[in-house]
Amino acid sequence: MGRVPDTEPAAGPYRRADALPRLAEAPRRLPRGLRARFAFGNPLSLIGWPVFGVGMILVWAVVLNSEVMVRGWDGQLDQVTGEVLVSEVTGTKQVDEGGPHYDSEWKVHYRYVAHDGRPRTSVSWGSTRLLARGVPVEVEVQHAHPERSRIKGLRDRRFAGGLVWLVLIPLGGLGLAVGGLFWGGRVLTLLGRGAVARARLVERRQVEQSRTEAGTPIYTNQLTFEFRAADGELYRRTIRTRNVDRFVDEAEGEQIVYHPMIPSYARLMDELPGRPRIGEDGQLGSPDQWGYVVLVLPILMVWSHLLYFVFWWLS
Predict the structure, then answer these.
(1) Structure pTM?
(2) Which sequence spans correspond to the domains of the chain?
(3) Helix segments in the chain, DSSP class H
């Protein structure tokens, strides 16, 4: 592949294809569908909500069944003798101490009698030797809560408390989703209250975006637009795209909206997701019937996990 020139002159005269009608002066109406599209249909939200949903499944399945959810083991403990009812293998884990080998993870059912004289059955988890039916075991019982017990050396929950770090997954997803809300809110502010100008393409460059496994560079187009704000100063907006034609389809230059107080914060209308529709009166129109579909994901994630939490709490 030959050398790609660093800079190319701006493209020739703009073509008149599917150019957008000119935006009306601010303030402009923002239909609900458009608000939903930008608040919940941006890349941050589309990644964040699924990560939040999957992460919460891990929290319900693992963290709530871990030792971190049980309190009282640092208080007074009674030592009693219990009897194994049945042992089940739940998995294996690799242990490097004393040479690499695998230990079995066991789920041990047992019964015991606490200080109140009531016979009870319970379950402990952990790595241990095979405990056959009828084998006596030493059981630790919380004096204040005799229904809480564990075989000494084993856990009273399936998973260790160290897995509490899994809560970082849904928190990270929620952080992305909230970031998407802020991003969408800033763009909606521009669409509703931003000033409008025409931006002219002044420079087109091909820059390396990434490389293939063989080391071949993959190039994309870097377009620089210039516009004059109401304060009389010239400002620039630079974007990267592979679809150059999308940004050179208006004879008068590309429409750009910018913050009246901070003109350097600007967005080309054609770079916004979905290219918002503009009516003949210059007002923004509602997106198509898919505009509200972006609400399904956050509603499903929030309500399903909220209902599960309520059922878990009540149980």
Answers:
(1) 0.71
(2) 32-44+169-291, 71-156
(3) 32-40, 43-61, 168-193, 296-314
